Amino acid sequence: QQQVKQSPQSLIVQKGGISIINCAYENTAFDYFPWYQQFPGKGPALLIAIRPDVSEKKEGRFTISFNKSAKQFSLHIMDSQPGDSATYFCAASNAGGTSYGKLTFGQGTILTVHP
Amino acid sequence: GAGVSQTPSNKVTEKGKYVELRCDPISGHTALYWYRQSLGQGPEFLIYFQGTGAADDSGLPNDRFFAVRPEGSVSTLKIQRTERGDSAVYLCASSLGTMNTGELFFGEGSRLTVL
């Protein structure tokens, strides 16, 4: 009930290409869906987040697409750059409940962008 | 410092020993979270504090784990009788509050290795 499933585990993209990472959740009480970026030896950093009242949110090259009925959401990175090479985590929480910060994370996707 | 500070950055201990991990959150942040990240996995929620009190400790794996935040700022995660399975990176995060969708700021983590 609390799981967030993320795919793929790893992704290799050429510079300038589009990176797409998908997540699916089970708990219908989740109402806050952030994506985090983590570089080796560093803590995760918030990239972009969405609430279920919208189907898409775009910030620069990063877009979240959200499908409430399918309980799925995805991250699209346009014009991928070598500096985007990192591990990406989707997450979910019940912001309307106890705390938006009590996050359930996916397993992570290691993104490599070749120059 | 401007960010979340965690000490030590690395801790190697022997099975059965007691360990303390410290987190200094961003000044003014009332909410503080502890997560545990095993190799190749997403962070797992352990406990969070709103002020001095533990608002939710449902993620603590067993009674060997305990955390305190006596003055509502610095927090210490305490692990008794460490086991090899406790080896992981322990992440601390802070935020301005819990009942909003603002950003969760993570530290770089304390890497615990239990021999």
Which of globular, elongated, flat, extended, rod-shaped describes the shape of chain A?
globular
Number of strands of chain B: 11
Helix content of chain A: under 10%
End-to-end C-alpha gap of chain A: 40 Å
Helix share, percent of chain B:
under 10%
Work out the oligomeric state of the chains in this entry: heterodimer
Low-confidence stretches of chain B: none
Walkthrough of the structure:
The complex is a heterodimer of chains A (115) and B (115). In chain A, the strands form 2 sheets. In chain A, strands 2, 4, 5, 9, 10 and 11 form a 6-stranded mixed β-sheet that branches. Chain A has a 5-stranded antiparallel β-sheet with strand order 1-3-8-7-6, with no helix packed on it. Chain A has strands at 4-7, 10-14, 19-25, 33-38, 45-50, 56-59, 62-67, 72-77, 86-92, 104-105, 109-114. Chain A is globular. With 115 residues, chain A is an all-beta fold. Chain B is an all-beta fold and 115 residues long. Helices cover 0% and strands 48% of the residues of chain B. Chain B has no helices and 11 strands. In chain B, strands 2, 4, 5, 6, 9, 10 and 11 form a 7-stranded mixed β-sheet that branches. In chain B, a hairpin with a 2-residue loop joins strand 5 and strand 6. Chain B is globular. Chain A binds chain B through residues 4, 6, 32, 34, 41-46, 49, 51, 89, 91, 95, 98-108, and chain B through 4, 31, 33, 35, 40-45, 48, 50, 55-56, 91, 93, 95, 98-104, 106-109.
